[in-house]
Design goal:
With about 230 residues, the protein is α/β, with parallel strands linked by helices. The protein has 8 helices and 6 strands; from the N terminus they run βαααααβαβαβαββ. The longest helix is centred in the N-terminal third of the chain and has 18 residues. The two termini are about 15 Å apart. The relative contact order is 0.17.
């Protein structure tokens, strides 16, 4: 077995309760979404342009006005679509919530000690989530256990690729300048683990409360991972 030099972890259902995302982050986004409708910035405009592009690709729709684009982003949120413009806007809105202290990122109690241990052992730690890189950094930078972001060397989101595509994990390994065989991927979702395994990574399923064990390597918390 190749030496594990990097631990790549999912967030939702792995480091963080799924309920935090669905019961805290998503409602916060929807509550504050339309406050950003009149905000003029290059970042917001890029998101709206990407939203229009995706609508055109999927539906062939003609150009929509700003209000209609925001309504589409809300609809995607309600559908829990894993699309990049939605994730980017969620990251922007959540950032304000974290910065004002209204939001605190949930992590399981076993996560911070394991991150500290692996980091002290010289392991490279990285995140791969469908949430934007900005949202990932805010969650770990403002967690209930303090600022955990210094433990991580890299963050990856859907701009790298989709989570169920083996080529995404190859791209991540290349970005880390490692062979896939030197990476251990942690997730609660079997389809993601299968994609990472096909790419050549080692994999372990996190079986948190509500998750059914369905993989050849499982752990109920981070302390059980060698």
């Amino acid at each position: 077995m190749a030496e594990i030099s990097c631990i790549l972890t999912d967030i939702e259902g792995t480091t963080t309760e799924i309920s935090f995302v669905y019961d805290v982050l998503f409602p916060y986004f929807r509550e504050h979404l339309f406050e950003w409708e009149d905000v003029e910035s290059d970042e917001i405009q890029e998101i709206l342009t990407a939203t229009q592009r995706l609508i055109t690709e999927e539906l062939g729709s003609s150009s929509l006005d700003r209000k209609a684009l925001f309504k589409q982003l809300l609809a995607w949120s309600l559908e829990d679509r894993k699309v990049t413009p939605l994730k980017a806007l969620q990251g922007i809105i959540w950032k304000k919530g974290f910065e004002t202290g209204v939001l605190k990122g949930h992590v399981y109690p076993d996560v911070a000690p394991a991150l500290a241990r692996w980091h002290s052992e010289g392991k490279t730690l990285a995140i791969f989530s469908s949430g934007s890189v900005s949202a990932q950094k805010q969650l770990f930078g403002n967690s209930i256990d303090g600022d955990l972001s210094p433990y991580f060397s890299a963050f990856f989101d859907t701009q790298t690729g989709m989570k169920r595509d083996p080529q995404t994990y190859v791209a991540i390994a290349n970005s880390l300048t490692m062979l896939p065989a030197n990476v251990l991927f942690l997730s609660d979702v079997v389809e993601e683990l299968a994609a990472a395994k096909l790419a050549g990574m080692h994999t372990t399923q996190l079986v948190r409360p509500g998750t059914v064990a369905a993989w050849d390597s499982v752990a109920s918390n981070f302390s059980q991972i060698p």
